[in-house]
Amino acid sequence: MSRILVTGATGRLGQLIVERLVAQNRPVRILTRRPETARNLFGTTVQIAAGEFADRYSLDAAIRGVGRLLLLSPISERLAADQIAVANAAEAAGVQRIVKISGSDWTIDPPGVSISGDAHAAVEQHLRRLPIDSIFLRPNAWMQVSLANTIKHVLVGNPVTAANLDAGVGYIDARDIADVAVHLLLADRIADAATLNLTGPDVKTPRQIASLIATALGRRVAAIEKRPAIGPSDTDFEHRAVAQFATLIAAGRAAVTTDIVASILGRPPRSVEAFVSDYLAAEAALVG
């Protein structure tokens, strides 16, 4: 197989994807602004291309000889412009397939409810116009982000807080997102321009999360409704995007499940119960 380029490789999900590709002895190149960080993470197991999304010269150098591309970048005001630049360089270089880590389905559809979702939608629309096999992964809320943060706060004595204690979330484990992404990068064929809404196996509300953590810890964990603080309108893009996520989740928009992970991987997605158990076991090992 020709080389695979991964963008966003030094982030939480990017690392998981690279590790899985390397474990399967796939030739991987990463494009990063932080080559030293990348070397510390991956050593000599991958090719490191130092560069910027906005620098077409470094993009062209990174993408030369690449057959497949994992497109991932952090939430930012430049997300759409940066990812479209990568897509255009990929088209010019003859890349055959792009797997894009997109926004959650409920941030993209309907449009106009999330600045982050709208940015991802713009990239998806651009990719659909290119002569490249593209697939869009729309992961629901990640366990490793909001759920991990909830557990961390409980461990230091705080309650579970949410704007709506009865608004469920179909949390998905980032390891399942990585497994699906790698499967689709390596598959012989995929459906053209497929859009996949990735979720965990069931929906959990903040009340249920508090009960799960309480059972695991053997002590009471309170659950309190608390509206998130609303910052000034000129708050940076990421903070505005996260505030919009909270509003949509409180309205029940993330309370969805699909069978896509199981249909692709041939096994059920990891559960919230398993994530809570794993997280607490890892914390106990650090303390011990």
From TrEMBL:
InterPro entries in the record, alphabetically?
Ergot_Alk_Oxidoreductase (IPR051604), NAD(P)-bd_dom_sf (IPR036291), NmrA-like (IPR008030)
Q: Name one Pfam family in it.
A: NmrA
Lyase keyword on record: no
Q: Which residues form the NmrA-like domain?
A: 2-222
Gene3D superfamilies assigned? NAD(P)-binding Rossmann-like Domain, UDP-galactose 4-epimerase, domain 1
Keyword annotations for this protein, in alphabetical order, are: Plasmid
Protein name, per record: NmrA family protein
Q: Which organism is it from?
A: Neorhizobium galegae bv. orientalis str. HAMBI 540
